[in-house]
């Protein structure tokens, strides 16, 4: 009975070693390294593009006038500190981050 158990353990160890050797062969290692490099470079490019877009939006916080569509009378427009012109309420301090 102990011999059968030892035989089973030896087969398990051989199977495990084959599985480990199969996973660590040069072709799989090459694919893993190339994939990791591609993933790292593309992640860096995407992150830098997003950061540059956000920084350009933040740095261009110049006010640009726009009409406020939900205010449709002169009293409400002037009460909110905006300008009534051409039957529209204009906000001269509108920020693009709005």
Quick summary:
This protein is mainly alpha-helical. The protein has three helices and three strands; from the N terminus they run H-H-E-H-E-E.
Architecture overview:
This protein is mainly alpha-helical and 98 residues long. The chain contains three helices and three strands. A three-stranded antiparallel β-sheet has the order 1-3-2. The longest helix has 34 residues, at 26-59.
Uncertain segments are none
Helix content: 55-70%
Distance between the termini: 78 Å
User: What's the overall geometry?
Assistant: rod-shaped
Strand count: 3
Largest sheet: 3 strands, antiparallel
Write the element-wise H/E pattern from the N-terminal end onward: HHEHEE
Number of helical elements: 3
List its traits:
single chain, 98 residues, mainly alpha, three-stranded antiparallel β-sheet, 3 strands, rod-shaped, 3 helices
Fold blueprint:
Layout: H1 2-23, H2 26-59, E1 66-67, H3 74-79, E2 83-85, E3 88-91
């Amino acid at each position: 009975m102990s011999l059968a158990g030892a035989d089973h353990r030896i087969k398990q160890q051989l199977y495990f070693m084959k599985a480990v050797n199969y996973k660590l062969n040069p072709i799989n290692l090459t694919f893993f390294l190339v994939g990791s490099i591609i993933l790292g470079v593309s992640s860096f490019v995407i992150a830098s593009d997003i950061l540059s877009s956000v920084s350009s939006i933040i740095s261009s916080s110049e006010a640009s006038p726009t009409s406020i569509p939900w205010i449709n009378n002169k009293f409400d427009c002037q009460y909110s500190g905006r300008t009534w012109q051409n039957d529209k309420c204009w906000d001269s301090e509108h920020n693009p981050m709005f």
